[in-house]
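Q: I have two molecules that I believe assemble together. Could you output structure tokens for the complex as a whole instead of separate predictions?
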Amino acid sequence: MAHFAQIENNLVTQVIVVDNKAILDGSDNESEAVGVQFCADLFGGTWVQTSYNGNIRKNYAGVGDTYDATRDAFISPQPYPSWVLDETSFQYEAPLALPSDAVKNGGDTKYRWDEATLNWVALVD
Amino acid sequence: MALQSSGAISLNNVNVELGNSGTASINMGSAAVRDLFGVASGAISLSDGYGASNGYDISYLVIAGGAGGGGHYYGGGGGAGGYLNSYASESSGANSTSLTSITTGSGIVYTVTVGGGGTTGVALWSLGGDGSTSSISGSGLTTISATGGGGGGGGGGIAIVAGRAGGSGGGNSSYLTTGSAGAGTSLQGYAGNVGNTLAGGGGGGAGQLGNTGGVLGGVGGYGLASSITGTSTYRAGGGTGSNFDNHDFTSPGGLGGGGVGGRGGTLDLCPGNGVTNTGGGGGGRLGIWTCSGAAGGSGVVILRMPTSNYSGTTTGSPTVTTTGSDTVITFTGSGSYTA
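A: Yes, here they are, computed for all two components at once.
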């Protein structure tokens, strides 16, 4: 199955499923252009293909995400004003790396981000 | 629309009932008119057409995309997609009364939208994404629209990561603080539920409230069973919340396609996606960073009608089967049916 995102003012408003057979071109190859036209004929509007597994355009599109045409990527909303976009993963990352004892780094301490102090705060179970 | 039951019926009325232009040429002795009026042979008059209808009923099951599970830590399960059912007096979403089927005339085009599943919560404390709407629209029909499942809450119960409302609501985790789960949409699905200190709450299903998290993640709420395809199948189960780190057990996904919750400990189990074309919610994430996450399952739209009325005109490559005297059109992708 293929997935297509409807875009309005660069925002994703819905993500729909389209059968792979509906996006075949004259040579029986899957074609984004055919899929986009199929969606436009059915619903109108502007459509961009996305991938459930994140294989194209960096991330699977979600409702409320931004489609950045320049980067050709779907980007989730910025969680905090201080977080910056990683230009490889196209995910927002904190401006400060997680401490070395964080779970992500193999430790057992869990942290949450505190935007007021722009720092990680350890959580105590 | 049936022809009127009294007064003068015009040829224009008969044409429209047959799906023709009102001004088209028409022969009262034609097979189409005789079929419509129920007069196989002999004399035929316009009054024979009182109450005659060329229409037929289409039963439907519309399920929106399920939501993604919440992100680290102890994310809540995603809510199932909204569930709308008109088939054979079966329950509709949130165990509500079966809906009224579509009564159609020939030539009407019904556009079918199949909503995608929501994204997983990736970053720390992030929400799962909502599922997308599935719907049926067409001339003379109030659009039948099922709401996408509500995203599972990410990690602890801080306000920005509480489970979201949706067709069924997203579960939440109460990690160290009090969180809230997402509400379900009336007549479509149930709310999610809250977690416990170290376990995410279950996402709501079409047939049951999400379960609370305890030591284990809260199991997603049940979906509902429908036999619209000829086989009883559960769909639209909620995603399950993530487990406490040190328990080597897994909580299954909500019956009907909900994703299993993630967990740590020695199993290091990644959460499961909602099952494709069930509208199931995705499982919540734990602190396993190599997991790719748990997105919601895509939705589905199923139509069922007497085979004698099935037109054979579709777009979008749905699967067409028969069961008994009925034809079933299963749209796992968007498309249309022309009655």
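A: One point stands out. Chain B has a mean pLDDT of 87.
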